[in-house]
Every structure is written in structure tokens, then in C-alpha cells.
Amino acid sequence: MARPDSILLVGAAHLDRHGRCDGVPVPGGSNPGRFTDMSGGAAFNVASSLAAWGADVRLCSILGDDAGGRALRAAAMARGVTLEAQVSREHPTATYTAIVGPDGTLALALADMAIYDALDPAAVAGVEDAPRLLVEANLSARAVAALLDRARGTVAAMTVSAAKAGRLRPVLARIDTLFTNRAELAALCEQPVDAPMPDLLHAFAALGGRGAVVSDGAGDVWTVAQGETRRHPVPPVPDIVDATGAGDALTAGTLMGLMTGRPLHEAIDGGIRAARAVLAVHGPWRADIEGDRPWT
Asked: Which of the listed residues 8, 29, 47, 142 has the most CB atoms within 10 Å of its CB?
């Protein structure tokens, strides 16, 4: 029998190139700064945090037959994540290049991720037996639908970006908990990004949306569960080092709370604490997060 904290994640595992400008980024100009390379991807970041907290984590993705793919396999092993990767010989391992300002806010990002369209959902093992499945919109709409056709347990999903959020629209009614932010939710619901949050959540429900966690930058986080909407205050973070991965940490901390039996409106507290912890470091996750379990 599967452990209650077992989860299958299907989605992105790629190389993150993280550029930090020394000063305020100047569009169209040469900006002094420095690059850091690390392993990342929405599903991989979530899996890394869950594994650090001791959850039973299995991640399925697709990698190129290259040095980047080998580096990601090594990183997964080091983080305690069971990585089952399909291999493409037609595409390189995906990369995500982010440029942030000195305050850690994102100025520009470039995603080279054509490889994810080649992921074969039929080759992902154990979907039917997973008590909890997480998919994300780096996958094609076809792959997401095929995986949900096989799912028998609880389903969570991440919109990942405004450009990709629409991939989840056809299956929204089959997702138990959607992790998103204001811009991504607006794109998913085809609404103005500055629409009031209650209006966005009404549009979400009209599309068949059921449960959701919606972040709003440095503002409050909203949850929707069993027809009830709640607004959760987020304490200010005095010194943000890097905003990269905060949404993934919010997802991971909330999922961990759900897997320990907490309702969503309580599990979100652990997600908020995890996100705040990641905002205080460089990179999309914290290796030392096992010493600060956000759901306790």
C-alpha cells in the first residue's frame, strides 16, 4: 500500500541559468552582473522540497541525451528524488534563463523547452496507482489530458506561466487543486490581469474550476476549497534575496500539509512559510529546509 505522503509528479526538470544584474536592468543595454547555473523546473523544484521533508517522491520528466540530462540525474539522486526520465535524441535538455534585478525581482526570462512536447504520457508508469498526482503546464495539453485520463487519486496542477496556463483549461474540472498566480489565472480565464480577485475566482468557477491556491505577488494568497473562498495574509519579507521558485515552494509546502491530512485552508500556512523561506536564499529551493518543516 502506498504511503499517505506518496506523490507522482510529471513535468519539468531542466537547467536554470540565473542572471543577477548589479543594478536596475536596462532594456536594450548591456547589464553588468553574474550568472549561476543550477537544476530546476517547476516539478523538480516541488519534488526537491517534498523529498527534503521526507515525502515519498517520484518525478517523471524527459531529458536530452546530453551533459545537461546527466547533471539533472545526478542532482535528483543527491536530493533524494526518484527521477524516471524519458530520453529524447532530437531535443536538448530544456533550459530556463532568468534575469533578475538586484532586488531579486524577475526582469526577463527565456524558456527553451520544446523537449517537453515530446514527453509520451503513455510511457509514464504508475499513474493509476498514485494516491496523488501533480502535473504542470510545461507539458502539452495532450499529455496533461492523457495523464488525467489514467489518474485515480487526487490531482493537483500548476499553471507555470501566463503563456502556458491555457493548456489546463480543457481539463480544469478534473483538477482538485490548481496552483497559480494572478497573471496566470487571468490568462487561464481570459480575463484582464487587473480584474478584482473575486471576479477572477468567479470566472475560474464558471470554467469548472474546483480548488485553487492563488498568489498575488507580495500580496495575500487566496484559496478555494469546497466552494469556500478564503484570503490569507502574507507577512512582508523584509529582505528578498531571490523571487525565483517562491511559487514552487508555496506549492510544495501546501501539498505537504494536504498529504498530512490538513484541509487546504490550513495547509496553505505551511506553503506560505516555505515560500518565505525560499525568498531569503538564492535559487528555487532550500537544501536545509528539512530543519524547518513548514507543516508542523
From this structure: 47
